[in-house]
């Protein structure tokens, strides 16, 4: 994915430098701890998922022992599976001989229907919005009760800026999510709000219901829950039946008046929507 910011690249503890490849013999040298603790039986697919899920923005490179610990799998099982995953290029070794996600996973990710189409269509318009405002621009899609960020453009040097690509948040917590939730069907909305019945403050069903009504009336959402003191403005990209395909958001500095940014965000989302319809999406 194209992005104007630099992701964090936290690494694990230093490992001896190598040529970027490990043999089974080298891997075996890390498997010296006996598996004393009984482990529940898990399917192979679940174990692979646990291994891949052990990597994140703070842990992009791991030693075998760290991967075993984070995945909650025996060291011998991790060793055996990592050997095969390396052969399949699902995992790779970096220049320091640490494990990292392989190119094969990236290739699979490009085929994800929920992200590929909307991302491809939205990116040029997001780049125009970023060039106009020089402010962070995000694209999110609905995923159950959460919004997942699939693209993020922001100034370089933003450090640990949020959200990051792949980040998921409850729908009501972000401008992207609020814009999505406002245009979901009524049954989904009511079920979502029911799950908030024990919340307090700004997260109660009554507060969220008013925000959703305001979003439908204006065509955009305003949300500070994850960005305060800055303000996030999000506008939906809808299919032909009025259901959300995704949403575009812009994060403006604290104290900045919403106009004209609300107009720019809505204009961008509608341009993405028109292009999506022309290309048969939704």
UniProtKB/TrEMBL annotation:
Disordered as annotated region, ranges: 1-43
Sample GO molecular function, one term: DNA binding
Annotated ranges, domain IclR-ED: 104-282
Entry superkingdom: Bacteria
Keywords: DNA-binding, Transcription, Transcription regulation
Biased composition, class Basic and acidic residues, residue ranges: 19-28
Cited PANTHER family: HELIX-TURN-HELIX TRANSCRIPTIONAL REGULATOR, ICLR FAMILY (PTHR30136), HTH-TYPE TRANSCRIPTIONAL REPRESSOR ALLR (PTHR30136:SF24)
Name of protein: Helix-turn-helix domain-containing protein
Native organism: Phytoactinopolyspora mesophila
